[in-house]
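Weekly modeling sync, notes
Attendees: AB, CL, MP (scribe)

Item 1: holo prediction request
CL wants a bound-state model with adenosine-5'-triphosphate before deciding which constructs to order. AB pointed out that an apo prediction alone won't tell us much about the pocket. Agreed to run with the ligand included and paste results into these notes for async review.

Input as submitted:
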Amino acid sequence: MTTGVTVSVPAKVNVQLAVGPLRPDGYHDLANVFLAVGLYDRVTAAPADTLRITCTGPGAGQVPLDRSNLAARAAVLLAARHGRPPAVHLHIDKDIPVAGGMAGGSADAAGALLACDALWGTGATRQELLGLGAELGSDVPFSLLGGAALGRGRGERLTPLDVGGRFHWVFALADGGLSTPEVYRECDRLRGGPPAASRVPEPEPEPALLAALAGGDAPALAAVLAGGTNDLQPAALSLRPALRHTLDTGLAAGALAGIVSGSGPTCAFLAKDAEAAHALAEALEASGTCRAARVTTGPAPGARIV
Ligand code: ATP
């Protein structure tokens, strides 16, 4: 009997998310500095007669179990490219918050690509998997890659970045998610709507931020984060004003810096060391300004078979 193939895939935080002008096609060019962090979804691909999806873990109830699931779409795409039916049972064991701005769905798509490739013996190259990932969503290639990377275009054209140390993070998880397209729409609205939103400067990575990552220098990274590196943060705060309290609580409890993670509503706090991170998580949980707080580190490895 063939057993399943399990892949572990990390969440990400955008240490920079510079959002460029609104393009005529409705998308935005980005300068996106991704850092993979140690919260993982596990995707298991097992033999089955037809495509079937199951999901367990926190927030599993909000994950679609039909072909709109990003993991299902990944299996369908890989199967189509290799002229075979997408017959597989995909089980997602979720730990990445759903609709939390940490690329959980993208992680599952990356996990499904790798797991199905191994289960079916399709023998896709790394380059092919990255290309299929980019077709599925702009964050999927990074979920395959892990570590840290600069994403240009819609975020999918990746250049790996050097990271000179381990950063300690606390993630404050919120009740309920935020819709990424809605957060982008709010960002454009706050910029004055079209055509004003089409006239903002082209996004560029922050040299001081890349230097702080390369040096593994948490205080230097915090100084850049404090200057505002997430262009979606004002929009997320506008849609969910209570996140301001979460950020203030984390900063008052000793975080070096606090930002909204991607499109939110998860908030990411940088801590000095592991001890400070645990104290910060306790303070955040005690404050009642988040549903739960999770301590972890980054960079973390990309999708890999376990
Ligand atoms: P990002 O940070 O990439 O913008 P996110 O982390 O905010 O995304 P996801 O957890 O990826 O959000 O989920 C966004 C929506 O996608 C969910 O509300 C859900 O309806 C849908 N979805 C489809 N497939 C999945 C999946 N495998 N896991 C979670 N959500 C999924």
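Recorded for review: The domain at 167-298 is CATH 3.30.70.890 (Alpha-Beta Plaits).
Action items: CL to compare against the apo run; MP to circulate these notes.
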